[in-house]
Amino acid sequence: MYLSLLYTCISVYTFSCRDEKQFRMSTRQEEVTISSFCAPQKKFVFIKTHKTGTCTVINIFQRYALYNKLKVLMPVSQGLLSWPFPPEEADYIHMPDEKYDALMHHFVYNKTWLLTKFPSEIPYITILREPFRHLKSQMNYYHLPMLLGIEDSKDAVKNFLEDPWKYRNKSEVFFNHVNVTWDGTRNPLTFDLGWPAEKADNQEEASAYITQLDKEFTLVMILRYLDESIVLLRRLMCWEVKDVVYYSRIENRRHYPYKRYEATLEELDNHRRWSAVDYMLYDTFNKSLWRKIATQVMVLLFMLSFFSSFADTAKFLHLQ
Prior knowledge:
By secondary structure, this protein is an alpha/beta fold.
């Protein structure tokens, strides 16, 4: 659907070889104009969701923070600022003035708390992954087949999706010390963005919550369209291309028996009903991303080509 939208946009703006030079010049001019009328964003909140490619994306934010000497709200314990528990003052390293420029660690989204640490007008950014692929990654990383009592084989996902409700009592994990329930198979993306696992069946309230998230987040990237997302990020933040070049780390390309498993339509339907809030979340922000793309498709196409060449060069240099 979205590719056809992109192709339609391309066809509308089809130009001849004679016009290509003029197009490229005007596109470059627009980039110069944008840079002239905006200042680089040096304050931001990036909510690092789980198993969504954030180990790749966070390098962009870490590098920018390092080069620009930003004051990052850092966790006391490595990696986890506030997850799966609500934020507490003892969880992070305090600055003398309690003023921070950036957040980029695992953190259960809590806008009320964040407003006590950051200005209200800064960009809020996160990234999501298609829920079925996310489930497979979750099951591998957290060893969920063992938790569910399913053989960890190529059929693990298939066996689970035949009847997810059968495993409900096994898939939920309760953290006694913070009174929080987490389910690695059911709405884990929305959990990272502040939606309680106990409200998995309350879709009406969940829909209202996602609508609110859509107002609060400036950009929600989609892993499947990472290059497009990064180009939009660059334009949103008014950063230079060099600031957003990334290298996908080979060590993160894990292999497991069911990684390539393609679910049947019935299994996908079961998963969509089981993890309905995550699908609602993903569908909302996938559409939002493509609306943003559609409004600036020609500039985006040019920048994607330029960005891809830049990234390929960076990858080559990294491997030397």
